[in-house]
Specification:
The structure is a single chain. This protein is mainly β. The chain has a domain at 21-96: Rieske Iron-sulfur Protein (3-layer Sandwich). 0% of the residues lie in helices and 41% in strands. The protein has a 4-stranded antiparallel sheet, with no helix packed on it. A 4-stranded antiparallel sheet has the order 3-4-5-9, with no helix packed on it. It has a 3-stranded antiparallel sheet with strand order 6-7-8, with no helix packed on it. A hairpin with a 5-residue loop joins β4 and β5. The radius of gyration is 13 Å and the shape is globular. The two termini are 14 Å apart. The model has no long low-confidence stretch (mean pLDDT 94). The structure holds FE2/S2 (inorganic) cluster. FE2/S2 (inorganic) cluster binds at residues 52, 54-57, 71, 73-74, 76. Residues 52, 54-57, 71, 73-74, 76 line the site of FE2/S2 (inorganic) cluster.
Length: 111
């Protein structure tokens, strides 16, 4: 684990960015938290909760683009920017700070 001194956020390495494919999520467990990680077109990553707040769908199995992921069960879409859903009644998907350092995905789940 490393700490970003500018933000005081603790990042944990979760895997290699080379394991990711753009448009497809990948699930990881970090500190007992199930997360889904997505590769964007610019080589950055986004990390969200792995479980859909609607009815528990597997977010990592959803289709994604550079701005959002769509849950595979009922196709609600969640923005990477803030986890907001295209139907506000559904709720918000947790999003976590993430980065790539020397090819390694790092995520901060404790924030
Ligand atoms: S379980 Fe994800 S949209 Fe319904």
């Amino acid at each position: 684990m490393s700490t970003d001194t500018a933000t005081d956020v603790a990042f944990t390495p979760v895997g290699s960015v080379s394991d990711l494919t753009r448009g497809e999520g990948r699930a990881y467990a970090v500190g007992g938290v199930q997360i889904a990680v997505f590769l964007l077109g610019d080589g950055t990553v986004r990390a969200t909760a792995a479980v859909c707040p609607h009815r528990g769908g597997p977010i990592a199995d959803g289709q994604s683009d550079d701005t959002k992921v769509m849950c595979p069960l009922h196709q609600y879409a969640y923005a990477f920017a803030d986890g907001s859903c295209n139907d506000p009644a559904i709720g918000t998907l947790a999003v976590y700070p993430s980065r790539v350092v020397d090819g390694t995905i790092e995520v901060a789940v404790g924030t």
